[in-house]
Amino acid sequence: FFFAAPRNQGRFGRPSCPSISNSRQLLSTRNVAMNLFGRAKKAPKPKISDRIKELKEAQEMLDKQEAHLEKKMEEARKMALQKSRQKNKKAAIFQLKRKKMFEKRLNQLYGQRENVERLINAMETVAFNKANIEKLKKGKEALAQTIEEVDVDKVNELMDDVNEQVAMADEIGEAMAQTLGNDDIEEEDLEKELEELQNEEMEAEMLQAPEVPMSEEKSEKVEQKQPATVEVKGDILAELASAPSAPVSKPEAKQDKELEAVTASLGI
């Protein structure tokens, strides 16, 4: 016969520790929950762009606080002048204290804003450099991959094949430019034959030109010259007929001499 062991006893009748059993139950419950709902996700790492945005928002807030304090300082200064004119010394001193308090707070804000601006500048520089580093890294990986795909020996073989093909193409072009058949005719003989043809053509043109009798040529020349001579003589005679009969002065005498010379040359 077997007897059931009490609750506080473990296997083989040994007493069990309640803390150990409780921890085991918690672990099993946690494992069941993790299996059902999955493991808890880790929080994503903060992006530098988000932090820059937050700092710029803080910068805008500092600007607004500075404008507000500057306004308060100006109001306190005006109130101190007003109380001083009213002979209220205590109120004037109080307003000056307020002004100093605002000024102190404003100087603190100036320092904070300067630190924020420096931090923003540093973070933007780091982000810019990081982006450039990532681009350089990707470029290096692409370059390395391209170099792995291209073999130097294969490139050299390709260039040798290209040079060989170009040389063959040149040889083919030179072969195609050669004159077909045997050409035994010399160029000097061709030039002599061309000169003979030109001479024959000139002789043929001279024979085809019409002959003009010498008598007709002379008569035509005489007919062409005769009217001009007559016209000149007629003009001179008309001028002589219309000349005045009054005594001739020295300039007119000179003209007469020139006229006589002209008529003498014409044979009148």
Automatic annotation (TrEMBL):
Alphabetical UniProt keywords: Coiled coil, Endosome
InterPro entries assigned to the protein according to its UniProt record, in alphabetical order: Snf7_fam
Record bears the keyword Coiled coil: yes
One GO process term, biological-process aspect: vesicle budding from membrane
Localization terms from the record: Endosome
Pfam family, one: Snf7
Coiled coil: 48-119, 180-207
Primary location recorded for the protein, binned into one broad class: other
Basic and acidic residues bias: start-end ranges: 251-260
GO cellular component terms, A-Z: cytoplasmic side of plasma membrane; ESCRT III complex; multivesicular body
Record keyword Coiled coil present: yes
Superkingdom classification of source: Eukaryota
Region described as Disordered: 242-268
UniProt family annotation: Belongs to the SNF7 family.
Protein name, as recorded: Uncharacterized protein
Organism of origin: Lotharella oceanica
